[in-house]
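## Example record

The block below lists the input lines for one assembly entry, exactly as stored, with component labels intact.
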Amino acid sequence: MGYSEEVEILPQLILNSLIAGAIYALVALGFNLIYGTVKFFDLGYGALAAVGGYVTFFLYKQLGFNLYFSVLAAVLTAGLIGVILNWLIYGPLRRRRASSMVLLVASLGVLTALQAVIAILFTSQFQTLSRAAGAQKVFEVGPSIGLGASGVITGVQLVIILVGAVIMGGLAFLLRYTRFGRAVRAISDDEEVAKIVGLNTSKIVAGVFFIGSAVAGLAGILVGFDTGLEPTMGLSLLLKGVIAAIVGGVGNVYGGVLGALLLGFVENFGIWQISGEWKDAIAFGLLLVFLLFRPRGILQK
Amino acid sequence: MEYLIHLAILIGIYGILGLSLNLVVGYTGLLSITHAAFYGLGAYVTAILLTGFGVNFFLAMLVGVIITAILSLIIGAILSRFRGDYYALGSFGFNVILFSIFLNWQEVTRGPLGIPGIARPEIDLRFMIQDLRIVFSSNWSFLILTACFLLLCYLLSRFIVNSSFGRVLKAIREDEAAIQVFGYHTSYYKLTIFVIGAALAAVAGALFASYITFIDPSTFTLNESIFILAIIILGGLASNRGALLGAVALVLLPEALRFVGFPSDIAAQMRQVVYGLLLIILMLYRPQGLVGEYRL
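Predicted structure tokens for the full assembly:
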């Protein structure tokens, strides 16, 4: 590949990396919030992204409701299901002091069952969320910021990057400056002590599950508008989110975002050099490198 | 009757998978979610040797087992640095990587097209004894072959867990730090059992490839690893009988769903729902499974 060709493609590669990074960051944010609080790998979290996407699909595309209403309802549904799962499954297990592996296996069950339920309700076919057929409106980036070459980005992808930034800022603010955030951090440090000083820990954990799951749902919706929906989309999103979270530093809000961006760049530059089919393998390669050489992530906690 | 034999063969194959995973998860306490990758590797090596080179089945199986053992040695060496849920996630990752190799290394594996026309096993002793050539082409004979391998695996597993080696494994599961104090190199033990488990999974893979006579990557996904995990969790961790019991139950369970009369694509999803709910319910109410002696 010639030098000039590389320069041509560079802006687009960087844009693609940012878009992928923003999606992974969203997933990692919610995942990290939950992991940081309850200390187990909640794999069922992935299915909630699919729940968000498919509820939007049902309301917006099948029933023809207003876009904003559909998205809001879908995000709330995902959050609510997260709370219910915690109430029915994870909460009782945690009270019994089940090991984190028991919780992981239970959440694996949640993931498997929820994905299959979605496939039964909506078939396992690939669906798109946007109503407008054909190409989406695209913006050209590059000449305006003084680059010779340029790349394109769709409106949805622009929204993805914005939402990623807003959610990250919002979560950081919530954890840092609110009573709820302080309580979450207290539980994350030591749940027993938090209980002793009089925090209603089960209520706060439920809140964490609501927020985390709602963020997952939002990520699912955005992916649905950008590329499309599949019942198994949750698993692949979850895996990327988990990788981002571990690479960045598990349980650390900013770490997850850093890890997500790194993953986005490694993946996109990797498939540019190798080939698209190896995307997942590249992502897991990155995870393994980090697990081996820097197991606590970029930002150690 | 053919149908019952078919189910019995599947039970045999999943029995081997369950027994071998149980050595790793049940007896040693390493939550490995990558078993389907080794199962697939055994199947692919056997299939490629049988269709491409006309090697005898048993030799092909042996080569598959050796290649799987070597690869699992490398993977296990990386994994043995982790514990608990990080171990599970790392193993998860290897399943994804091996699956994408099956899917994308098209020159060798034919990718999503799969490998058709895999021969059934045969024993050819005509050079020694006249007319002694056994081909396991009927399902009956294949069932007997599978049962032999299952029995061998069962005896091997029982031998391992009752040996002094097996006692060290259980000690690692209960308290790795404590057994290290006594001077045991636990990572060596963890690695050895991981390789043995993977090699046995390759045996199951070879049997599967030759029985179905066709393989493609979709059999060896993460879902399959979860299914094998469900088998031993249902049957009971750290129990060889439990692994067999789990294989019987989970192979027969979806067949019961078949008679309810769902369309086939919905039936396939219903199975996943049942496996998922089963895992949840077991974790909530009976984490040691039906006859297990160890809880995660």
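The first strand of chain A starts at residue 138 and ends at 141. Chain A has two domains: 30-130+137-231, 249-301.
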